[in-house]
Amino acid sequence: MNKTKIFLLRHGQTQWNVEGRLQGQKNSPLTEMGVQQSIQARKLLEQFEIHKAYVSPLLRAVDTSEILLEGRGVDVSTSESLKEIHLGAWEGKLRADAESANPEQYQLFLNSSEQFELQGAETFQQLQARLVAELEAIFAKEKHKNIMVVSHWIAIKTILAHYSGIPLSRLSEISDPDNATLIQLEKDDSGATVVK
Question: pLDDT at residue 151 above 80?
């Protein structure tokens, strides 16, 4: 196997996903549906040998990874770099409340992410830089292996933008990753790509 493969997943559905709250780096438990989504993803993953897993330390990602790898004895490392975007005062807020508090920033957040600059929050540029650095480190360290990575909504979108050659100004063109759905990245000597 001359390719390094990363199986990238967003965590299962959480209570705050259902309530329409912005999670950022705060914790919200998986719903029953989130658990079922993770079980479905585990069945898909069973066809692949997984050599190592890297997981965001946020509870929803850790719980999802435990379901995904149940009974497999895979070594799991948590990585701060795989956390979701830090959203400052918006974390835990209903989307509607975040929008009414900062209407201009909320529109940038959704539609022009390269211009988003909420006081106390991370920019999309900072988020993408830390995630890509982490994935490149994983690719380098785990050469020719199959790796599972569990992360988050916006985090994964910025990863997909980077490896698809799409600028952050067009991030809204990338579909939101569904909860607990497999996305595959592959790297060989010619570089890394998103497997369609």
Answer: yes
The model's confidence at residue 1, banded by pLDDT at 50, 70 and 90, is low
Is the torsion defined by CA of 130, 14, 169, 90 positive or negative? negative
Non-local CB neighbours of 91 within 8 Å, separated by 6+ positions: 22, 23, 24, 25, 26
Length in residues, the chain: 196
Give Rg (Cα) of the chain: 16
**11 neighbors 66 (Cβ within 8 angstroms):** no
Task: Give the model's pLDDT for residue 196.
Answer: 76
Q: How far, in Å, CA of 29 to CA of 14, rounded?
A: 5
Other Cβ atoms within 10 Å of 77 Cβ, number: 11
Scanning the structure block, which residue is given the tokens 């929050």? Answer: 121
The pTM assigned to this predicted structure is 0.96
Residue 88 is classified by DSSP as G
Choose which CATH entry (3.10.150.10, 3.40.50.2300, 3.40.720.10, 3.40.50.1240) describes domain 4-195: 3.40.50.1240
Catalytic residues, by residue number, are: 11, 84
- DSSP letter for 141, please: H
Closest CA relative to residue 146, chosen from 189, 187, 191, 190: 187
